[in-house]
Amino acid sequence: MIVAFSVSPLGVGEDVGAYVADAVRVVRESGLPNRTDAMFTSIEGEWDEVMDVVKRAVAAVEARAGRVSLVLKADIRPGVTDGLTSKVATVERHLAEG
């Protein structure tokens, strides 16, 4: 499964980069395949391990902010691995074909 999620503190002002970095650090230290862009962090693995990482990422932000927003989207497709790479490669292949 692939989960794309965004976690942000609420009520701390506009500069939330340090809080988001706390969450991304948890994801990167998990050892699961992941990718971070300007809007979301995507992580790939089995249901329980991915949700555990998301929960710990939220807790990392919550430790410094009293209120947290979480947006989550999941692609639940048993048996598929390396989806973070293969899904993008498929789109790039179609773009290259014109």
Automatic annotation (TrEMBL):
Cross-referenced InterPro entries: MTH1187/YkoF-like, Thiamine_BP, UPF0045_domain
Gene3D superfamilies linked: 3.30.70.930
Domain Thiamine-binding protein, residue spans: 3-92
Xref: Pfam families: Thiamine_BP
Domain of life: Bacteria
Similarity annotation: Belongs to the UPF0045 family.
NCBIfam families in the record: MTH1187 family thiamine-binding protein (TIGR00106)
Protein name (Swiss-Prot/TrEMBL): MTH1187 family thiamine-binding protein
Organism: Streptomyces siderophoricus
